[in-house]
Design goal:
Its cofactor is Zn(2+). This is Alcohol dehydrogenase. With 364 residues, this protein is an alpha/beta fold. The chain has eleven helices and 18 strands.
Length: 364
């Protein structure tokens, strides 16, 4: 039987720094281990902008989009845990089950995550590189079956789809990597989408002092609405001294750097209590260097951690967080600043760059 190829509309960037334009692309039926999904929503994430600007690679043309909910349309013949009609959140951590991390019982660190084998293409046959192996600024996309995490269908797809990337990264930085405990103090430096998600995660974990730090007072106020108990505008106040003043002079138990710059990392390092934890979830650029006195690293104790995708395991974390959302404990709706169409992605990148939104969400 001849394989069906689906012609769908999608957002593509053809060259470094080029515009994100709507194109007709070709999506094949799923093969072994794959799933074809009808995309419902897709958040506009900084990672997509990095692809557009050449900050991740030069494997153009890129099919953008990755922070999504979808409905399974078809599955490969060997896929047994998904069926057409399943509501899913897409993820970029389809674990292999066989690498050294998986064998140690730590699949959240899987070193051999995988994507669909077949290629989606432009109409002329040019292969597309899907963002984070997903490519979901599209009416349909092809993914590995393991990139689909089943969820209930009685929730707003625009809200829960944000767990697919940035919001999960922030929440996970607090509850997974930072292991925030009830009654602890937490400071978050950088209050964009990921930082605000870390604040929401700290509140969910039971932190009682949650300090939001940002240069922009408007972002600090937004963070307070999402769970911060205190705010520090760092263009007006030294953040290290301010965090210490709010924690009885000691520093916070956990400090999360959601910016990813040497200066913010140093602030996080010195703003934590002795034996406290620093979590880096903001993504630095390749040229950035960090200098710290080694004696201070030794003398302050504690731990310095990096958070990859919030150290999440989608099959474990997505359903649990959707349940917390349904119980009213996790305000995912508040992260949806606007709902837009595929043709509005380019403008959404500009709004994101200016810091005007937590998330623009495409409704396909």
């Amino acid at each position: 039987m001849a394989q069906t190829v689906h012609e769908v509309k999608a957002v593509v960037v053809r060259e470094k720094g080029g515009p994100a334009t709507i194109e007709t692309i070709l999506v094949p039926d799923p093969g072994p281990g794959e799933a074809l999904v009808d995309v419902l929503t897709c958040g506009v994430c900084h990672t997509d902008l990095h692809y557009k600007l050449g900050g991740i690679g030069d494997d153009y043309p890129y099919l953008l989009g990755h922070e999504s909910t979808a409905i399974v349309s078809a599955v490969g013949e060997d896929v047994t845990d998904l069926k057409p009609g399943d509501r899913v959140i897409l993820n970029w951590r389809a674990v292999c089950g066989e690498c050294r991390a998986c064998r140690k019982g730590q699949p959240q660190y899987c070193f051999a995550t995988h994507n669909a084998t077949q290629k989606m293409t432009l109409q002329d046959g040019t292969p597309l590189s899907p963002a984070l192996g997903i490519g979901s600024f599209a009416e349909k996309t092809l993914v590995a079956a393991g990139q689909c995490t089943k969820i209930d269908d009685d929730v707003d797809p625009a809200a829960v789809g944000l767990l697919g990337c940035g919001i999960m990264a922030g929440i996970g930085a607090a509850i997974n990597t930072g292991a925030v405990q009830r009654g602890e103090s937490v400071a978050v430096i950088g209050c964009g989408g990921v930082g605000c998600a870390a604040i929401a995660g700290a509140k969910l974990a039971g932190a009682t002092t949650i300090i939001a730090v940002d240069l922009d007072p408007a972002k600090v106020e937004t963070a307070k609405k999402l769970g911060a108990t205190h705010g520090v505008v760092s263009r007006d106040h030294d953040p290290v001294e301010a965090i210490r003043a709010l924690t009885n002079g000691f520093g916070a138990d956990v400090v999360i750097d959601a910016v990813g710059r040497p200066e913010t990392y140093k602030q996080a390092f010195y703003a934590r209590d002795l034996a406290g934890r620093v979590v880096l979830v903001g993504v630095p650029t390749p040229d950035m260097k960090l200098e710290l006195p080694l004696l201070d690293v030794f003398g302050r104790g504690g731990s310095l951690k990096s958070s990859w995708y919030g150290d999440c395991l989608p099959s474990r974390d997505f359903p649990m967080l959707v349940d917390q959302y349904k119980l009213g404990r996790l305000p995912l709706d508040a992260f949806v600043t606007e709902r837009i169409g595929l043709g509005d992605v380019e403008a959404a990148f500009e709004k994101m760059h200016r810091g005007e939104v937590l998330r623009s969400v495409v409704e396909v």
